[in-house]
Amino acid sequence: MSVYTEVERDELVAFLGEYAVGDLVSYEGISDGIENTNYFVTTTQGKFVLTLFEHHDFAELGYFLDVMTFFYQHGIPSAHPAADKQGQYLKTLSGKPAALVVRLAGRGVNTEATLGQCAEIGAILGEMHLAGKDFTARRATERGADWRQSTAETLLTHLDDDVTDMLRDELRVQSAYATLDLPWGVTHSDLFRDNALFDGDELTGIIDFYYASDEYLLYDLAVAVNDWCVDETGLPDQQRYQTMMQHYLEKRSLTQAEQANWNLVLRAAALRFWLSRLQDQIFPREGELTQIKNPDAFLKILRFHREHPLTLEFN
Ligand SMILES: Nc1ncnc2c1ncn2[C@@H]1O[C@H](COP(=O)(O)OP(=O)(O)OP(=O)(O)O)[C@@H](O)[C@H]1O
Ligand SMILES: N[C@@H](CCO)C(=O)O
């Protein structure tokens, strides 16, 4: 359940009156999602998703909405905000920062990805990384190497001994991450199966840009590989992996340094989501009534990458 803030009909009618989107027809809360309050909103002129931001402040939200608008304007099928009559994307509703985002067609992927879907995600991520070179706003990541180190330290005492030893060793290896010399720029940084919408094998949209930040481009690719390219046992699957990578590499080839550090970055991406899920499980945030995603899925992927480095040689 993810409606933390109830919006009254009168309030919504007044809010929509500030946009040129016609009159309210209907609205309903969206149960998916964890962070924010979301409603589907239908007006006489279109379909939208109204998001009330529960954790972010105005300053950083401006950045996210600019990222979404930028990618949309560069041909990436991204969720993007509607501007109100004053040209503003970010507004206030029920005391929360709020945006009216154009509703995209399609559905999230809630089973293992098809090869066609892996191909689409690989290609679009390559296109995003090329287009993103022209995006000039900067935002440091909140889930980077420093965060991984400090979060791991707070979690270590809550873990079993065998896991603790592995985590300590991984942190030692990961100490090289922050100073790698890899291409970087604006990234989605959370491009999971539930953050892309599909109609069959056709990508209709990318949503949830609220972890967008400056990161190594390779990290963005690693996040996607770790989630999309797994089989029903949750382990990396060669065919899905090869398909996603080949479609990515058709758009952007990897530098030598990227190739040399692929395993380290795949591990960093697995570590980030293992730690954030563990943190949500061990220290749940007050007032959040949603499902907690299983940390073990990423412990398993991290262990896999430590033992079986994925190659970059494809046939
Ligand atoms: N622009 C959009 N078009 C169509 N559907 C959308 C759009 N934005 C969000 N949705 C729907 O709303 C659901 C919740 O959105 P989202 O995943 O962004 O939630 P959140 O709470 O903001 O983020 P998170 O899942 O990271 O906690 C999505 O699963 C999707 O079904
Ligand atoms: N995509 C994340 C949640 C948002 O960061 C996960 O699956 O753990």
Automatic annotation (TrEMBL):
Q: In which pathway does it act?
A: Amino-acid biosynthesis; L-threonine biosynthesis; L-threonine from L-aspartate: step 4/5
Q: Which CDD domains match?
A: HomoserineK_II (cd05153)
Please give the Gene Ontology molecular function terms for this protein: ATP binding; homoserine kinase activity
UniProt keyword annotations, A-Z: Amino-acid biosynthesis, ATP-binding, Kinase, Nucleotide-binding, Threonine biosynthesis, Transferase
Q: What is its EC number?
A: 2.7.1.39
Q: Does the keyword Hydrolase apply?
A: no
Indicate the segments forming the Aminoglycoside phosphotransferase domain, all copies: 27-239
Q: Which Gene Ontology biological process is one annotated for this entry?
A: threonine biosynthetic process
- Name the reaction it catalyses: L-homoserine + ATP = O-phospho-L-homoserine + ADP + H(+)
- Identify its protein family: Belongs to the pseudomonas-type ThrB family.
Q: In its UniProt entry, what is this protein called?
A: Homoserine kinase
What is the protein's species of origin?
A: Methylophaga thiooxydans DMS010
The organism that produces this protein has a lineage beginning with: Bacteria, Pseudomonadati, Pseudomonadota, Gammaproteobacteria, Thiotrichales
Which gene is transcribed and translated to give this protein? thrB
